[in-house]
Amino acid sequence: MKSSPLVRFLSFGLLGGSVPCWAQFASSEHYDFFELSLEELMTITVDVSTGTSRLVKNSPSSVSVYTKDEMQRMGVETLDQLLNFVPGFQMSRTDAEGGVSVPSVRGRQSNTVGREVLVLLDGARLNDPITGGVFSQDRQITLENIQQVEIIRGPGSALYGANAFSAVINLISDRDSSNIKLRAGSHNAQEAALQWSHQWSDLSVSLFAQDYQDHGEHYPAFYDFQGQFEPTQDPIHRTDFYLQGRFKGFSAYYRLAKRTNEDFISGGAQAIDHQRIKTDNELLRVSYQHEVTDFKLLVHGEQSSSDYDTVLGLFPENPVPDPTGSPLYWTNSSQQLMVGGNIRTVEHERVGMDASWQLHPDHLLSFGGSWMKEENSLNPFQTNIDIDNLAATGQLVPTDNFALERGFYIAGVRYDLLEPGDRISKGLYLQDEWRVVENLSLTAGLRHDKYDDFGSHNSYRGGMVYSLNRHTFKLLYGEAFRAPSFAETRAGIASGGISNPDLKPEEVDTYELSWHYQRDMVQSTLTLFHNHYENLVKPVLVDDVVPGFTAFQPQNVGQDEVNGLEYELDVALSDHLLLRSGYTHIFKTIDSEPVSDNLGFFSANYHRHPLNLNLSGYYHDEVLSTENGPDGKTYLDDYWIFNASMQAEVTPEVALRMDIYNLGDVSYRTRSPQQGLEEGLPARGRTALVGVTVQL
């Protein structure tokens, strides 16, 4: 039976907000935690909504913003953590990609990599064309060197093109800080980070380097993997490097992000000490900005290369039931562990131009275009099966010394996950912002995208923002599409999946009505939204895709809709105490979608020099795990997770801190689609980190 989450949510007396009301207490040089008033902080501007700087309350989108200072007070380290504190977002750990967290947005979760969310870093796209998402290939994005995070809740394809479907996340790097940070804590965690910046006349340089690793939480056995019931752990290793230079109108940056996740259940597979997922991401972007009176021009180019390397357990040493005789098991009755995985490289090149022309003090015209090429290398299987012997004899025997080989053969025919390939896309957009009168503005925009593999698509947007005294009303409309990924349209059979070359882009039309109220120490926002989906994509079981094999295939299954509301309220209760929180309710969801009907979050920040204390928490309602449980539908329980962060200024240059995650050591579970994991995946318990930050 469903519980009463709204009553429990309100019982905490939560308050919330649409902008970061205490966003910049501290300067980048010192730890003055309470420098600005709430009223001043309400003037923070964002670029993600229109491509031009606008106050949050006046932007023709539903936007949430977090600044670096606020994220540090909350103890938030990665984008995965932060999104639990954004209305409409629900982050859930999954085993599909080795324990990463993936989002659902406004009651929609299309897959396990977040392919409906576009993520930008200083203007560059981070989405991976093979999966379409970010949260697998570019996992656990660090926020340590991010100055501001801007999130559009809703479609953005009229400005940004494909995959700006349910949300757009814009990460703006920090170019001014200089400090060293050291932390250590639970699970033998160790972290070191360096930020350095300097300016010589017109030349400025900033550098960031970070390394974090831990041994992971140890979990008692919770999963029966073919008769093996063993404990596991989830060690993590993250390495980041970022170098940026600016000279007059020129800018260039290089980014490196490396991740390794080991041992934890992945795709229903388990192989302790042999299971891993490694990702390496490199990105180079150059740009030039020029301004002449009322005309601004930005030209840019970027190139990225991303490697993905995974090894998973296929059969344990003594599987139960005995698979001897299966065409996918050892032919020679070996008792050796069988592993498999894949390895790939994907690259993208993109050039573009963005311009704005102030035709009149009340009229701004924006336009631009882009060209992008996405390509992938051969994406073969890798396994400890002797592939040469398999090709010659059709027999599966293990390699010597557990060596990994690439390729796979069925009846003498080689199968790879992806053949080398590419696609080219082009896009043009036009947007008009018109302030009709002092308190009324209109925005209209359109974009045309053309892909050489599935054709063209047009996206439109329109918005009206009307202000009356302390009230601001928004009426918004937006369209978006999600380009089918390489994995959906070009992949061979693997792990029960097969591609669909005839897949059409998913489409969404979104209508929003928003009311914003603001006065000296309070502001609130209520947003109602309606999403109508066309060409909805879902996995459908297909027989005999290869003789004798069945697999799930992504197919367009028609249309559906989701309706919901988001409420936010920021309040300064005193000169020392500020609260921010939000609540989301989904009135109607898509059938069988693993999303919560109710979500909530809060962050309470108290400052009295030299201390800063922050208590934050988020609530996730129960989630459908499976429709085919012993008693019909099986739900995973709802939960609250609380975090605490404490910081003390020792000197103007030195601060000590302690961050505690899952303060109550709550035992909770998140959904896995795998058979045998209907009761969900366990999450980490209480974790504590202590450290010091020294300003340079």
TrEMBL record:
What GO terms describe the biological role, i.e. biological process, of this protein? siderophore transmembrane transport
Per the record, the major location class is membrane
Keywords from the UniProt entry: Cell outer membrane, Membrane, Receptor, Signal, TonB box, Transmembrane, Transmembrane beta strand, Transport
Q: TonB-dependent receptor-like beta-barrel domain: which residues?
A: 242-663
**Location of the TonB-dependent receptor plug domain:** 57-168
The similarity annotation says: Belongs to the TonB-dependent receptor family. Hemoglobin/haptoglobin binding protein subfamily.
User: What is the name listed in the Swiss-Prot or TrEMBL entry for this protein?
Assistant: Catecholate siderophore receptor CirA
Which organism does this record belong to?
Litoribrevibacter albus
User: Which lineage ranks, top first, belong to the organism behind this chain?
Assistant: Bacteria, Pseudomonadati, Pseudomonadota, Gammaproteobacteria, Oceanospirillales
